[in-house]
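A quick aside before the break. I want you to see a complete sequence-to-structure record at least once, exactly as it would be stored in a machine-readable document. Don't worry about memorizing anything.
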Amino acid sequence: MWPGTEDTEMTTEDLQAALLDWYENNKRDLPWRHTADPYRILVSEVMLQQTQVSRVIPKYRAFLDEFPAAEDLADAPLSDVLKLWSGLGYNRRAKYLKQAAEQVVNEYGGRFPRDPQTLQELPGVGPYTANAVAAFAFNTGGPVFDTNVRRVMYRFHGKASDSELETFHTSIFPPEKSRTWNNAIMELGSEVCVDGTPRCSNCPWRSECTAWKTQDFDTPEVQTQSTFKGSWRFYRAKLLRLLMEHDALPEDRIAEELALPDKYDLDELIAELVDEQMVTESDGKYRLPE
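That is the input. The structure line, written in tokens, reads:
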């Protein structure tokens, strides 16, 4: 129902129009919303994985200043990519992003695949990221289902399993407006239907929302991220930063600088990064790959 017209149910077309109108008037000005370049969309999607928008924006701009196209990233040494990525965390994302650029250049002649299934063949690109690139770059993706969208559907449709919520989202999704719709529904979850106390007064779907009607604003449980400081990931990142600063270090110097707790094994840590080709060894010294 539209606000103020409690006797009239909103049709699917009404729901679509209400959300898209709201988005047009309330959307944030984010840099990746000003492009349909699949490379730039992929960079933003990879950076936004488990990282806040406010932290991503300056990194996104700096990254594209240095590597404006897939060819530039493909040709760059991984060490340069990791240095620019520093501060975003999950450094494997940077390696996968570079490998994806290399595959696009070497196997696809620099042209990104347009369909989500083929996009998933790129390193580090899972179903969600592939669909997002297809949606935001080519307007061909299906309905996204991230944490924010899941929360919106859980409250609006009513408490249900993820599969039921995804089915419902698909039923109201306008395929011809994939880019705009997915941006809009994610924006609604990020800015209005937030975790905790939602901002229902700003919601275009409030009058039809199950949570609003019942005043039950529970959200589906989301696994909390483990503490970073002192974790295995923390020391992986610290070791990579050391090599960014010193170019090459022997293991005894790494041990001294890293101050690894007894519960972790330095040889195992180094071996893991070497196996992932994040670190190389030569003449008894470890360095970032060229």
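Two observations worth writing down. The beta strands are 248-250, 280-282, 285-287. Residues 37-138 form a domain with the Endonuclease III; domain 1 fold (CATH 1.10.340.30). We'll return to this after the break.
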